[in-house]
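Final report, Chapter 2: Outcomes

The project's central promise was a pipeline that accepts a single protein chain and returns its three-dimensional structure in a standardized token representation, suitable for archiving and comparison. That pipeline is now operational. To close this chapter, we reproduce one record exactly as it appears in the project archive, with the input sequence first and the structure output second.
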Amino acid sequence: MIIPNKITPFKESIISKIPYVLNVLQQQNENPVDLWEKVQSHFEDINEFILTLDVAFVLSALEYLEDSEELIYVI
């Protein structure tokens, strides 16, 4: 679930996972594969990780640079 509700606690929501991704990207830009390797312990599976990237992108918290194939922190 993307946001917490009566059934999904905050700890299990996608919103709670975004800081794990952004903390790594604050240090340096990463390609998605390397980023996954650094944060995978915080996610149930790769699908949850990708959904987290999607939500962070929609919230304008990160961008993807096609030329260098890297994710960057933009907040």
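Archive annotation: The chain has one domain: 10-73.
This record, like all others produced under the grant, will remain available to the consortium after the project formally closes.
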